[in-house]
Amino acid sequence: MESLHFLYRTVPGRMVLKVLTQPSVSEICGRFLDSSLSKCLICPFVKKNQIDLSEYELEQIGSFNDFFSRKIKEDRRSIDRNSEHLIAPCDGLLSVWKIEEGTVLPIKQSHYTVSSLLRNEKIAKHYQEGYCLVFRLCVDHYHRYCYVDSGKKSRNIHLPGIFHTVRPVALDQLPVYTENSREYTVIKTDTFGPVVQMEVGAMLVGRIVNYKEAGMVFRGEEKGMFQYGGSTIVLLVKKDRVKIRQDVLERSRHGIETPVRMGEVIGHA
Fold first, then answer.
1. Cα(132)–Cα(169) distance, rounded to whole angstroms?
2. Which of 66, 94, 171, 253 is the most exposed place for a label (fewest CB within 10 A)?
3. From CA 197, how far away is CA 220, in angstroms rounded?
4. Which domain holds residue 213?
5. Count of domains in the chain?
6. Could you tell me the keywords of this UniProt record (predicted)?
7. Residue 66: inside a domain, yes or no?
8. How far, CA to CA in Å, does 212 sit from each of 30, 154, 206, 228, 236?
């Protein structure tokens, strides 16, 4: 938290942040983490984050990024197949917001309205009074994710990150922030209607790797993975399409995240 305060709320921190958010910095970091030289980082990372290696397939790990996006063993995650159930697309910490005019979503040390998150006012209007579900993945979480339901998906829409500057006098009211790079698709499902499923990358190296473009997809099918960096997945569901679990709603009202696992039921049609 102290480092975030320095980066976002001090003048020297803003200068450092501007350097860190340059695409070239992320590219250099990414190249190193893709290289075999980065394997030396794996053991300290495992120890620090107390990762249970018995859950994962580790036969073909050639770099730190290979390890970070490691695949979990098939029997370690159960995908609920009931078409009336909304499932979590990933492991993570879940918060839920009702989407209303002026709703501001805190995601990745940034603050978005739904329209600014999508950069598309027309799509955003369809989700008024619906739900926004935010799954925050920490570095020790499983960093692959699946489709929340079967249906026909649109093309992947990629939104590059933007660095926003704010004058020092305004830092207490609105800190400097970044719009992180993100990618989303709209999935036309039979049960929940059109659902937006979005991946949000990290400030430094948070590459989003999605496998498919437009076409049919299936509940529980692996959609993609994140490479190194904390990450977030966002779901937007239209009004009157889903009843979110009451315990999740209650915790969210009090600002408490709910731990969930990929494939777990988080709501009902």
1. 32
2. 253
3. 13
4. 78-268
5. 1
6. Decarboxylase, Lyase, Pyruvate, Zymogen
7. no
8. 22, 10, 19, 21, 20
Whether 248 is covered by a domain: the verdict is yes
> 223: which 2 tokens?
């959609």
pLDDT at 147: 98
**Residue 181 domain-assigned (yes or no):** yes
Comparing CA positions, the residue from 103, 94, 95 lying closest to residue 129 is 103
Helix or strand holding residue 230 (H, E) = none
List active site positions.
Answer: 91, 231
Amino acid at 221: E
Q: When comparing pLDDT for 18 and 231, which is higher?
A: 231
Q: Which residues contact 133 (CB under 8 A, 6 or more apart)?
A: 94, 95, 96, 234, 235, 236, 237, 244, 266
Let me know how many helices (H) and strands (E) the chain has, helices first. Answer: 8, 21
The answer to whether residue 241 sits within a structural domain is yes
pTM: 0.86
Q: Are strands 110-112 and 105-107 parallel, antiparallel or unpaired?
A: antiparallel
pLDDT given for residue 109 in this prediction: 64
